[in-house]
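Hi Y.,

Following your request, here is the sequence exactly as I used it, all 503 residues.
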Amino acid sequence: MIILTGESLTLKQMNDLLFHNQKVKASEKSMEAVQKSREAVERIVSEGKVVYGITTGFGKFSDVLIPKEHVQDLQLNLIRSHACGVGEPFPENVAKAMVLLRANALLKGFSGIRPLVIEKLLELVNRDIIPVIPQQGSLGASGDLAPLSHLALVLIGEGEVFYKGQKMDSLEAFQQEGILPVILEAKEGLALINGTQAMTAMGVVGYLEAEQLAQESELIASMTIEGLNGIIDAFAEEVHVARGYQQQVDTAARIRRYLSDSLLTTQQGELRVQDAYSLRCIPQVHGATWQALDYVKEKLEIEMNAATDNPLIFEDGEKVISGGNFHGQPIAFAMDFMKIAVAEMANISERRTERLINPQLNDLPPFLSPEPGLQSGAMIMQYVAAALVSENKTLAHPASVDSIPSSANQEDHVSMGTIASRHAYQIIQNTRKVLAIELICAMQAVEYRGVEKMASQTKKFYEKGREWVPTINKDRIFSKDIEKAAEGLKVMEMSQILQTLSM
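Below is the corresponding structure, written out as tokens. Let me know if you'd prefer a different format.
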């Protein structure tokens, strides 16, 4: 059971929740803070004070005073009018993460929402009632208004959900689970939608997949080194310590460990003096990707525990301050950084694939074909990798450098962080397929060299890969192989494979 406090949620806990069906509950202390904040909102309404989003309209309508008797209508109209997202829905695990992250932010006690609403959010998480949330339509300030409005629709019984493998109206799922929808009170609609949880949830799922992919990429690269009789000297510890980047040092150490007892690697001068950069510079390039991922992890774990709505309530309601914590710029930058880092992981992988199949660059059968000429072998797989790498380059254009004014120029600078996170996720999916292609080619190459000569650790990974994709002994529909290898990489429990490899 994960206890939410609004302060301490980690990416590891998110992984447990999203991929291992862990349940969640709110801490009692946090709920007490939520209740105090709620009491402050109720005093503001009863006293008729002018406070943005509580007794006024929104955005450019912030100067329009709303009478007390229309407070509920104000919140309902807000959710309905702002639920105008378009496009394909977010993946279910992203939408589930969004619900959890919104609840965690509200538990900080700065938002003036009733504990009941947070309890409903956590009920959705624990019962796997997942809002259907369109991906497109957020500017990333004032937070993720359109996506989070679709989340809020579910709470009031007007949205759609994924439930038990089906898409249905939220009320139907609620009836099956015995749940009643919520009637939103003062500020609650605004508190639910004014935040960065769409971009952050997409970023969390993307990061978790990217982290696993980065680990797998080193195993795949190690197998490629064996397939090409790569020079192991380039991974010597002193070389990387001399540069000084810890992630580079760590990457080189893992490659050395994976290949420690290989009979397929060579020493410098044995076959050649130096390898091409795509082999020799694996620690430098992959290490730099790890640097970027470390940055992304830090920013995500801050944002996962951040108060990102507006206004925020302090000192038991004595201070209600309109600010801009909903602005997604920190996550926008992080997502753009992740896009570039993962795209480069694909870039160097595709170059290694080229070295595996190009007869001008190795002594293996051309294109790893079982009958060169009659059968094309892996020739067009490299085309696919090249196409995906090129597509990544267009997706890697930074979304965060763009902005467009909205709400009659009241909201005149926005982050585009949600676009950045969505593009990062697509790059990760593309990169997994690029690495799947390298894996297929590397497995074929080591077979020509002699599987019995492989390092014990890479051999175990090779055996896992052969569960997904059989040996290429004749041409076949390789699209299926790429998809199977990519799916295998996605669902593989990296902790288990690494534990196996260390034995």
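The radius of gyration is 26 Å.

Thanks again,
Q.
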